[in-house]
TrEMBL record:
Bias type Pro residues, positions: 335-345
UniProtKB keywords: ATP-binding, Chaperone, Nucleotide-binding, Stress response
Name the record gives this protein: Hsp70 protein
Region (Disordered): 335-356, 376-396
Family, similarity comment: Belongs to the heat shock protein 70 family.
Low complexity compositional bias, start-end: 346-356
Source organism per UniProt: Virgisporangium aurantiacum
Biased composition (Acidic residues): 381-390
Domain of life: Bacteria
MF terms (GO), sorted A to Z: ATP binding; ATP-dependent protein folding chaperone
Length: 440
């Protein structure tokens, strides 16, 4: 049976396929197992995904959405001159996955998607709709930390005896999630979960860019900073090319100084979840690209006294675990129009603005904090009941016309032309006489 598992992340998407008698393998996108989740909608309404979207963004940034998964609650997003349903944006990413899966072995017999454990029916419904639009008619969805637990036991060979507690520390590019999982004879049980939706590798990149070049907003600088950050996982110093052709460098000590407070927020959130449950971890599994920073493992070890398990490629465990784990109910879905409430035009930033720290924890005796919809003390944020939600207005990105800027630029050009002529007429008597006679 040909099986496909897809982990749609905030910043990146990973897909793994398996066949009987063969080891699972990750699909490659432009030679990499990691596909950027970014999308670009062209003038014809076609959704381009991955590195294609990042390249097209330079021509028209207003049509680019770097983190479509973050917009799952928005219904639709204004890109360029149209409102595009979020399910369509995610489907653009999944179409790319479907194309690569077909090249690897045809149409898969089983398709598994992963989702954050805090996602309820409404958000998972958007993911199912996106899968249907992309051509996947029979899918199942498993919790990301459960899939990571399967990977930990099956691929890494970690011993997970019944009753042991595994902390899945998922530090991705766009968000941070932490889940406490207990191993039972019948499988894995989620005891509690938390996370920070405003904390991820992109936030560390932004802090490093501001540290190296304060006040400079340049996408190339972010690319340089990200590459240097990843290089510092293997060495103690990394070169950085700054805007304007300048050269600089970033040391591991500087990285720890800048990223330390952000990593500490993730560790604090982990301690809060464990404290709410009244338990201590037996094992900690690091997943997500940002988890490869040595600072992450050292801070966790110092706080909890447990040496974290660090996979060689921390972006892959969730998708690998989903493809090898048990799949229960497979639910067929059919494409349906995605409802959204059209909204009046309103400006929006190209990149999501920083939000106030928010966290959500589930489990007995655990308090919910942050800006979430709460039905009662200790309740999960309920996104399953759509009747209690006001329609979300899609955000439109558009160019604005600034006539005063054009007038100012024109006046400056006229002054630059008239000034030298005036000086010549003042200091040069023959020229002044010629002009006087010309206008008589």
């Amino acid at each position: 049976m040909y099986r496909l598992a897809v982990d749609v992340g905030t910043c990146n998407t990973v897909a793994v396929v398996s066949r009987p008698g063969a080891a699972p393998r990750a699909l490659l996108f432009d030679g990499s197992p990691v596909l950027p989740s970014a999308v670009f909608v062209d003038g014809y309404g076609t959704v381009h995904a991955g590195r294609d979207a990042e390249r097209l963004m330079a021509d028209d940034p207003a049509r680019f959405e770097p983190f479509p998964k973050r917009r799952v609650d928005d219904g639709a997003v204004w890109l360029g001159d149209r409102a595009v349903p979020v399910a369509e944006l995610l489907a653009g990413v999944l179409r790319r996955v479907a194309a690569e899966a077909a090249l690897a072995g045809g149409a898969p017999d089983t398709v598994v998607f992963t989702a954050p454990v805090r996602w309820g029916t409404a958000r998972r419904g958007v993911l199912r709709q996106a899968a249907a639009i992309a051509g996947f008619t029979a899918v199942t969805i498993v919790d990301e930390p459960v899939a990571a637990g399967w990977y930990c036991a099956s691929v890494l060979g970690q011993r997970l005896d019944p009753g042991r507690l595994l902390v899945v520390f998922d530090f991705g590019g766009g968000t941070f999630d932490v889940t406490v999982v207990r191993t039972d004879p019948s499988g894995l049980t989620v005891l509690g979960a938390g996370g920070l939706d405003d904390l991820g590798g992109a936030d560390i990149d932004a802090a490093l860019a501001s540290y190296l070049a304060p006040g400079v907003a340049d996408r190339t600088l972010w690319t340089e900073v990200r590459a240097a950050k990843e290089m510092l996982s293997r060495t103690t110093v990394a070169p950085v090319r700054l805007p304007g052709g300048r050269s600089s460098h970033l040391t591991r000590d500087e990285l720890q100084h800048v990223a330390g407070p952000l990593v500490e927020r993730a560790v604090d959130e982990t301690a809060r979840v464990l404290g709410g449950l009244g338990v201590r971890p037996d094992q900690i599994l690091l997943v997500g690209g940002t988890s490869r920073l040595p600072l992450v493992a050292s801070r966790l070890h110092a706080r909890f006294g447990v040496v974290p398990v660090v996979p060689e490629q921390p972006e892959l465990p969730v998708a690998y675990g989903a493809v090898i784990g048990p799949v229960q109910a497979i639910q067929p879905v059919q494409p349906q129009p995605v409802p959204y409430q059209p909204a009046p035009q309103q400006p929006a930033q190209q990149y999501p603005a920083p939000q106030q720290p928010a966290s959500v924890v589930i489990g007995p005796g655990v308090r919910i904090e942050g800006a979430v919809h709460i039905r009662g003390a200790g309740a999960m944020p309920d996104d399953d009941d759509d009747d209690d939600h006001e329609p979300v207005e899609p955000v439109r990105r558009e160019r604005t016309v600034r006539p005063m800027r054009w007038i100012g630029r024109t006046v400056r050009q006229l002054v630059l032309i008239a000034l030298p002529i005036t000086i010549i007429l003042i200091v040069n008597e023959p020229a002044r006489t010629f002009v006087t006679n010309l206008f008589r």
